[in-house]
Amino acid sequence: MDAEASAHGTSIRGHIVLTALVQNDGRPYSQLALGHALGVDKTTMTALLDKLERSGLVVRTPDPNDRRARIPVVTEAGRELQAKLYDLLKAVEARVLDPLSPDERETLRSLLRKIIPMEHVEGSCM
């Protein structure tokens, strides 16, 4: 999957950031809040957003409540790429889980939820 993301000018982590921004549509996330929600430190989040911004996938706007803070907003190009990568990720997930029965898939998901903190994960891939 990382090769697919890389072929489209981003990374798995970049896709995760885009997905969080798309799923949070309409509600602004400060860079700090976004990093906290994804379990990413401030320095790493800044580097990820820098790359996404250079690629035209995200823009950062001033926070009207805190002039020191910036609010990342996904662009139309970012939305399109996120949707494309999401579809690719679902296809990879289906291929990997194909040997398992529906009950086995649910057992796997249940076990993963127990060992991985995922309070902000939604949709496919869990």
Task: Tell me what you see in this structure.
- With 126 residues, this protein is mostly helical.
- The protein has a single domain, classed as Winged helix-like DNA-binding domain superfamily/Winged helix DNA-binding domain (Arc Repressor Mutant, subunit A, Orthogonal Bundle).
- It is built from 6 helices and 2 strands.
- Strands 1-2 form a two-stranded antiparallel sheet.
- α2 (12-23) packs across α5 and α3 packs across α4 (42-54).
- The longest helix is centred in the C-terminal third of the chain and has 22 residues, at 76-97.
- The protein is globular.
- The model has no long low-confidence stretch (mean pLDDT 87).
- Pfam families: MarR (PF01047).
- InterPro entries: HTH_MarR-typ, MarR/SlyA-like, WH-like_DNA-bd_sf, WH_DNA-bd_sf.
- It comes from Kibdelosporangium aridum.
- Residues 1-117 form the HTH marR-type domain.
- This is MarR family transcriptional regulator.
- Structurally, the number of domains stands at 1
In DSSP terms (H or I, runs of 4 or more residues), the helix count works out at: 6
- CATH level 3 topology: Arc Repressor Mutant, subunit A
- What would you report as the Rg, rounded to the nearest angstrom? 16 Å
Biggest sheet descriptor = 2 strands, antiparallel
CATH level-two architecture: Orthogonal Bundle
Principal-axis shape equals globular
**Uncertain residue segments:** none
Protein name: MarR family transcriptional regulator
InterPro entries: HTH_MarR-typ, MarR/SlyA-like, WH-like_DNA-bd_sf, WH_DNA-bd_sf
GO molecular function, one term: DNA-binding transcription factor activity
Pfam families: MarR
